[in-house]
Fold:
Amino acid sequence: MADSAQEKETQEQEKRQFEKLGTQEDRKWPVKTEFTPDMLAKMEELLPSRLNRIVATSLAGCIHCGMCSDACHYSVSIPEDKTLVPAYKADRFRKWYKYRFDWIAQVFPSFVGAKPLTRELAEEMYDKLWGGCTMCRRCTFNCPMGVDYGMMVRAARSIMQAVGRLPQHLQDTVDTHYNYGNNMAVEQEEFVETIEWIEEELQSEDGCENFKIPVDKKGAKYFLTLNPREPKYYPLTIQASAKVLNAAGVDFTISSRYWDLTNYALFNGNDPDAKKFSMWQAEDVKRLGCEYLLAGECGHGYRALRWELPNWLGGVDFKITSMMELMARLVQEGRIKCDKSVWAGKRFTYHDSCNIARSGGITEEPRIIIRAAADDFAEMEHNRDESFCCGGGGGALAMPEFTPRRIAAGKIKADEIRATGANVVLQSCHNCTDQLKEIIEHYHIKAKVMNLAELLAPALILE
Amino acid sequence: MENTVSHALYILEEPVQYICLSIMALLYIIKIRTLLKKPFPPEKAELKGDRTAGAIQSLFNVLRPWSMESTRNSMYFYAEFLIFHIAVALTIGSTFFIPLIPHLMTPAVTSVIMVFMGLAFLIGLRRIYRRFTVPEIKIISTPDDYFAIILMTTFFGVGFITMYLWMSGSPDTGWMWVFFLMTTFFLLYVPFSKISHYVLYPFGRVNFGMVFGGRGVLNKNAK
Structure:
């Protein structure tokens, strides 16, 4: 009896022993408000190291044909500002590259538009490549030469970030991830309690009494990752995802440690940080012995896990998939069935996140899910890999100094949403969620924003 | 047709061209080698598509105007592009055909080349006008951009007249001299200018195709 009580107490103590996640010593990256001569000198040093074959080809290969000008949501939404044409923005970086490496520029720099890296040019790079590009790659897909603007802009950002010249809030987000193991400084105890509370809420739904949200379940098939906005501000999205997974009988778990799928180092260009965040998560997947790392509904998070993490880590020995792909498969296998009448009277449209569709290859899965749960679905004029960026990508939401431009750049997306007549905009990305909500309000559109799990969850037929 | 020209023009048409062509080739080799020495970003993720198929599809994107919104929505612009570049190939080609295989330059072949040169000349004029007047283009244009299009357009104009005279039985004219002097200049200048973009084109397209082919964005039918 005494042993049993002691054992119980030990278990309780273990339960309360929460650890400090992230790095042991806190870091505050020094962010500068302007470029100094020392910073410019350091940037000159760094440039060659950032020139892989794709970046170098993209810098050398632009022929100034202007085909990209109609492809960019900034230049289309704000046509009066010609400096937002992709080629112009990229030229802020290209001028410097040419000054260093173009043959003719060594003799006649101005003939090919080359310029030395001055404070003025660096500030233009800052303005256009942080605040005027979301690295959505729509221009890349419309470039006859195959110029990869996304990779090129990230290379420029990484050089600026290394010397401390980047939007403060974006770096703060990365620092928070570095210091706490997730980008919103959610303590482990707070997170576990939130998940337990969500589980209780889920179990209070009809037919969900036995549904679970397992935390740190060893040997689970799927290691579900979340965007920190979910436990912090949108717990119902976790509840919806858990409901779908439970209804289909999916064996999953959430880690109490490295559950954050975001990686804002993808946006600020700091590869060592990106690698560190990836490594934490990969080690956590191994700790729990899961077969799949399952990315929740998050655009850049999906891309960071599915396509970049294996490269940052030199390969992984587990599989990586996403909620979008898994839910589509569950629908196709008949493991979840929906009652479409739940959504009667609602018209849906779907916004393809750039990182999921264009940079991630997920275009049909969301539509399989939507068709399973709703009858009235209208595509936007530009969809799938041709979808316009909503304006919230590339870390734009973490750059408040560029907010007016971000909202203005969302006009083309707002116009396309309005044209569908939809009253629900579906998406699978938290940055898109926030941007879509803002532009819907700003451009006076009567629609709400939901993710795909939130579409499925209320319509599930529970047996 | 007979290629009866003065010794001086022969020197310009053949030995000088060969020397310039060799210099051009050497510069391109240096350019390509420099690019190839740069590391290609690794791809360790489990692929959803075929990188090679993606690269091939992307490489031949130039023949699939429907695949890109930017060309799909401006087929007229695409047609101009196609004619202009065919004319480039034919014009450059004719600088070799004239001295080396003059019998190939039958009236029919010469007429076809002239048609493309003439059209390319008109397209070139329109492109010059566009570069000077369309704000989106003007703001991104460098002196090299203006110089390249003016040079090409002039080359087509001169080429058209030269071909006409060639067909009329006057191969050794001032126009022929200008035509071959321009060709000589081209061979030396192009590796330094934006006109050499055709060397970078395969790199850009293959890079794009490898990345997005592997991710299953391209080549969807092949999956």
